[in-house]
């Protein structure tokens, strides 16, 4: 069994020797450089559920700049005051890599550019770059703009010429280009020629409704290339689930700018996901687009932006999702342990992600060994290790039968192993708890209060706390009580709480599974509890969550326990 093991340092060595070399050095350098144009703050913020305050927008822009993005589209100053506020604030933020772009449309039909409010608003932002979108599809010109085709061409040209004369760098987004190109290729190209004539720095072909298919991209780019000298870019939406593929295809056909958003946020099904495009370009195609040393900050950036956008981080996201390098099947895990390259397309560390091994009914011994090793428990060094592993697996299956699920609850799993091999120390014991939820009058809010009694080293502590709900009250009371003994618990917070009803045919008699995720700013971990009573299930998950934090801090060599004398003084 021991032969299966690659120590963590050996594992790194395998990767450092092989994977990055293959990915980076052999492919490098195609001498192509693609500039990334991020529109998370404009197109991305139009996605359902995505909300950024103007402070959030500044923080996202700072993070994108530090990461090495070339252009950051901050918003549409003609459309709302929040975006104007952003441009005002960002002017005073020193940026290292990025240029700020303001978004807007071509001028109104009957206005001269300098009389057009939208264009004035763009100029007033003080941003160095303007992204102007215009119509390339004759159908839109006739039915939406309702202007003659040649007037649209004039609008494109003189809008760009005006902003350029005012000193702005102008990027032209050819809206619905691929549809327009299908309907009337000659007119679609004429709109681009108008943009070139006006002085556009880059012409971006946009698949605005996300309907383009992969095989349509190359021919369109090649055809346009014959007529247009200005460098080209791509702006793709994900309605056919091809936005990333379309963007990569465009790069293969000469696009030097890729527009997209972090985590693929955007209207309807979203925009092209930069969290996939950037590593594909850099690791698989040898194309530079951000400073190489920043690529390992990609996962962090992705999580940070999801937090500010108030969106749950999607686990299944390629490259940056929690599941992107999670292995579950026993045979898979066995192979990964022998050599991670066998089952991973890149080394997760290259994008700042981590390998995870999941435990479940599908698990073999390898999963258990790997997980235990990750927590510093070498099962193979135990006496009767084979028997012990079997015991762990059996217990695991028993728990799963009763509704436990350890995927996403690694904290509980680590504790379980430690308990089974008798290496777990109880940090505290519960004497009892009581939770009351009441509504004191028709106009009053529902309030919960929890009282809890715990013992640490023979010292009893009785604490009460209020909360917006019973679980919140219980969580607060428990942490309030224990922080007196274990000060590092102050760093912890609950970031997610999920309840699943099991055996739904039994209605209210059914068991519930509570999964919680906690964070201390450095790490995030999940724990689980199952019971017929939702409070008890929550309690079990909370207790594991706190025990895990203490175990983790103890393992890191931190002094977790306050001296008893100080505790007594405090009490
Ligand atoms: Zn768009």
Give a written overview of the molecule:
Strands 1-2-3-4-5-6-7-8 form an 8-stranded parallel beta barrel, surrounded by 8 helices. Helices cover 41% and strands 18% of the residues. The protein contains 20 helices and 16 strands. It is an alpha/beta fold and 571 residues long. The structure holds zinc ion.
Descriptors:
571 residues, alpha/beta, eight-stranded parallel β-barrel, three-stranded antiparallel β-sheet, 20 helices, 18% strand, disordered N terminus, binds zinc ion
Distance between the termini: 51 Å
Radius of gyration: 28 Å
Q: State the shape.
A: elongated
Mean pLDDT: 88
Q: Would you tell me the structural class of the helices and strands? A: alpha/beta
Number of helices: 20
Helix content: 40-55%
Low-confidence stretches: 1-28
Can you list the ligands bound to this structure? zinc ion
| Biggest sheet character | 8 strands, parallel, barrel
| Adjacency order of strands in the biggest sheet | 1-2-3-4-5-6-7-8
